[in-house]
């Protein structure tokens, strides 16, 4: 019987100990469950926000790709409607290929640009002390330039073909 009493006392202490541990754990367990619930709610909220952002981005990308397709079709149609020029004689270069389908206003701009690239401009209003162009007429610089070309050729130097002086 004494053994039974000792065993009963041990069981009472064990039951008491289990109750105390259970009481101590209940607070942190409740906090843990509350935080898990918050995390679950936040995850659901973030999931919904990401799904909405994904749908919006998909819609934007779709409309952008449709706009790009429309622009490409429009440019293709405009370029197909442009009058075609014949292939220029000579070498098949990138410049010749570009010039074959150039619209008329751009052709005038290109011609003017090429002419300006070949021009040499002389300023009559020299800002230094010696002004050698002041007393010359407009025809005299052209005559002097042609004479300079003749002298260069006599010295045996090469001059670009088709080089001329037209006006001053």
User: What is the overall silhouette?
Assistant: rod-shaped
The count of helical stretches stands at 4
Measured on Cα atoms, how large is the radius of gyration? Answer: 47 Å
Beta-strand content bin: under 5%
Spatial separation of the terminal alpha carbons: 139 Å
Summed over residues and divided by their number, the pLDDT gives a mean of 76
Structural class: mainly alpha
Largest sheet: none
Based on DSSP secondary structure assignment, what is the total number of beta strands? 0
Kindly state the percentage of residues in helix.
Answer: 55-70%
Unreliable stretches (pLDDT < 50, length at least 5) are: none
Series of secondary-structure elements, N-terminal to C-terminal = HHHH
Brief digest:
Helices cover 70% and strands 0% of the residues. With 168 residues, it is an all-alpha fold.
